[in-house]
Write a structure and sequence with these properties.
The protein is α/β, with parallel strands linked by helices. The chain is built from four helices and 18 strands. The longest helix has 20 residues, at 218-237.
Amino acid sequence: QALTTKASTTAAGAPALQKPVSFLSSVQTAASRAVSIKTATPARPTITSRAGWGAGRAGWNPSFASLRGAVVHHTAGSNNYTASEVPGIIRSIFHYHTYTLEWGDIGYNFLIDKYGNIYEGREGTLRSPRGQMAVGAHAYGANTHSVGISILGSYMYGVQPTTASLNSLQTVIAWQFGMGNVNPYGSWVPSTGKQTPNIAGHRDVFSTACPGSVYEHLGAVRAGVKQILANANNTNSGGSTIPGSNVNSTFTNIPFTSNTKYTDNKKIGWGWPNQGVWAAGDFLENGYSDMLLRT
């Protein structure tokens, strides 16, 4: 899900650029060289594992599903905690979810404290295959295909989350969305049958006040996730500038050959020049990486 472009051949056999119409997943060349251009994955943030907070043994076997969205929560507990108290708080949530509610384990995939520290939640979360997530127990009707992230504390009655917690929320969502090629501004339909933002609050999928005032920050979270993904693309591409634009990306040098093919399960063009082609990052601002060709 990488390029937004289409090529055709003129009567003289030279390539011509048509308007962008298709998302492409790879670039293949006949010169024994393949280039894959897709949304880059931001670096994995620092995450305290289940062992780090003293998780008990889960009473379920993890299952995994492709990632399509994130559901944001708050735990609705006390905000007056110290960093050293956090592992004990998470253990109490684990006990409540596992034994009182009989969910087999803690329901959230990740938890974030007010200091911005990130913790692994449900068993299997950190060993989920790339682009997938362990099915959680955090949002009825939307547990499958989502990553559930909860900020420790209660954010009702105007109480606001910390900047550190929101920054970490953006970071962990961007990391997951980078691996799953998920658009932070897109939407998906869980088993509730309701069109749901890819970055949603619990209240978007269930009748609840959760995640409290965190909800009003989700617009900024989407923008932050998009920026992190764009920065990852630019960093991975080298950061040179596309002439005539303010988009940073690399100059992509593709060999000229009639056998150079741009494919999305079908051939759509060949014979591209070896200069004047740039990987543009998310130039069209639609959540996908784009390629520009100067003719």
